[in-house]
């Protein structure tokens, strides 16, 4: 009896003496069992919890990002859990020299402006020159989408592609973008433009943010 | 400047947007990679609290709802601060780093 107890204690001490990382590895545990198979006692101290790696730590956060926005707001990339290097943002933000920088032999401040107006139910796009004169415009309705299909991202991408081809044929190949509003066509619209071959040089956000209630927005919908 | 679908044409002469145009809220695009630039803009706008303010002002928020929301945010801030302090206290440790060199 005492002999049995003694052998059990020795097996337990064998478990705890193994290094932390190796002990949790499923390939190592069978070897440990093989060593102690001859002893007439059981390895009851074996821990079967998985190793807590870095990938598992962020898995829940990624899942949460997918489920959160069932209604497509166009605000993808809003919650980002990455820590960026300072070097990643070299030349990404404009500075005091940007208005005079040349893009395709045209000053940035003289470039044509692509305006994308995004709303809950539609996306409208237009090309203006620097003075503000409208040159051409396209909307989801002009692409043939009607009613509820106008508010989809696919419609916005089709609109962007069609306007982009129009612009390219008219000779407008470099452009800066101006985006207004939140909606499903926010990213899809400008993606359509880039697919058509037009070079988008900068993207600006011009959404109307009402800090005071002036003009007062519409009353809440009660469903 | 002409804007598509401007609701109040009489206010055209007043600048409704008080930030430097094409300098503020702007991201330069590299190699026509507009998707990652848009994601960056969305991230910046959300971190600055602009998207939250935009969503709040889509519909009018009555004064009683404003008071309710502000009180909730104050209470949540107190709770979050105390919870973060507790977590940092409970998680404090003095162990040797098991994975040396992995930041």
Automatic annotation (TrEMBL), chain A:
Matching InterPro entries = Ribosomal_uS11, Ribosomal_uS11_sf
- GO terms, biological process: translation
Q: Does the keyword Magnesium apply?
A: no
- Give one GO molecular function term: structural constituent of ribosome
Q: Does this entry carry the keyword Nucleotide-binding?
A: no
UniProt keywords (A-Z) are: Ribonucleoprotein, Ribosomal protein
Q: Name one Pfam family in it.
A: Ribosomal_S11
Offer a single GO CC term for the protein. ribonucleoprotein complex
- Origin, by domain of life? Eukaryota
Give the UniProt family note: Belongs to the universal ribosomal protein uS11 family.
Q: What is this protein called?
A: 30S ribosomal protein S11
From TrEMBL, chain B:
Similarity remark: Belongs to the bacterial ribosomal protein bS21 family.
Question: Which terms under GO biological process does the entry name?
Answer: translation
| Entry keyword Ribosomal protein | yes
Looking at the record's lineage, which domain of life comes first? Eukaryota
What is the organism field in this record?
Hyalella azteca (Amphipod)
Alphabetical keyword list:
Ribonucleoprotein, Ribosomal protein
What are the recorded GO MF terms, alphabetically?
structural constituent of ribosome
Q: What is the lineage of its organism?
A: Eukaryota, Metazoa, Ecdysozoa, Arthropoda, Crustacea
- Among its keywords, does the record have Plastid? no
One cellular component term (GO) for this entry is: ribonucleoprotein complex
Return the protein name. 28S ribosomal protein S21, mitochondrial isoform X2
